[in-house]
Automatic annotation (TrEMBL):
<dbReference type="Pfam" id="PF00106">
    <property type="entry name" value="adh_short"/>
</dbReference>
<dbReference type="InterPro" id="IPR036291">
    <property type="entry name" value="NAD(P)-bd_dom_sf"/>
</dbReference>
<comment type="similarity">
    <text>Belongs to the short-chain dehydrogenases/reductases (SDR) family.</text>
</comment>
<dbReference type="InterPro" id="IPR002347">
    <property type="entry name" value="SDR_fam"/>
</dbReference>
<keyword id="KW-0560">Oxidoreductase</keyword>
<protein>
    <submittedName>
        <fullName>SDR family oxidoreductase</fullName>
    </submittedName>
</protein>
């Protein structure tokens, strides 16, 4: 798929990765960019068409799909992290992350799939995480949702292949956004992440490992669980000590 002249819709486009996606799409020649947010007044990027969208609200998702029937590239970026563990954390917080990070993305795909088919197949980008593959204290609900979103992405890729829709999973470690502000470590620039993802779409890639951290984590998946956990403990210790 050629990003140039595409019609893209970006969720969570008011800041961070979403804003970077919208900006790079404009700079790379997209014909139209729908920039969506729960509070549309917070979108400050010129040259975009702003839509209100709460991906955890099915009615809001349906309204966005009706307002943007010409979309050929869907960027599922919006997500939340509540800092919740599975056993001691609030069950409501776990459900909130699942509703947004998994069912919110799936709802977007279900509503926009007919438009993508009608516009030639198009492409979907699901912004995931290296935490699709590992957990950690204080972030196990997030790990659960990203692992589930990875599985969902792999499933819808198979189901949408017949209509010619590319589904690209994008994994990263940490990006230089508000969500990662408390981590004094190397982070990928949001614009670099957006370019890596869009380059992957143009190359027809099913998966983009956007930084060295995500590549390292995935390379350890063949290890036994005990070996994997020990390797991740060492990697995290080295990361935080750097």
């Amino acid at each position: 798929m050629d990003v140039n002249n595409s019609v893209a819709l970006v969720t969570g486009a008011n800041r961070g990765l979403g804003r970077a996606f919208a900006q790079r799409l404009i700079e790379r020649g997209a014909r139209k960019v729908y920039a969506t947010a729960r509070r549309p007044e917070t979108v400050d990027l010129p040259g975009v068409e702003v839509l209100r969208l709460d991906i955890a609200d099915p009615a809001s998702v349906r309204a966005a799909a009706e307002a943007a029937p010409d979309v050929s590239l869907l960027i599922n970026n919006a997500g939340i992290q509540t800092g919740t563990d599975l056993l001691t954390g609030s069950p409501d917080a776990v459900r909130q992350e699942l509703e947004t990070n998994v069912f919110g993305h799936l709802g977007m795909i279900r509503e926009f799939a007919p438009a993508l088919a009608g516009n030639g197949g198009g492409a979907i980008v699901n912004v995931l995480s290296a935490m699709s593959w590992f957990g950690g204290k204080g972030a196990n609900a997030y790990h659960l949702t990203k692992a589930a979103a990875w599985a969902m992405t792999n499933g819808v890729r198979l189901e949408l292949a017949e209509q010619g829709t590319l589904v690209t999973a994008v994994h990263l470690g940490l990006a230089d956004t508000d969500m990662a502000a408390g981590w004094p470590v190397d982070k990928i620039a949001p614009s670099d992440l957006a370019d890596a993802a869009l380059d992957g779409v143009e190359a027809g890639s099913a998966e983009v490992l956007a930084d060295q951290w995500s590549r390292d984590v995935k390379s350890r998946l063949p290890l036994a669980p005990e070996e994997f956990n020990a390797a991740m403990d060492r990697a995290l210790a080295a990361l935080t000590a750097a």
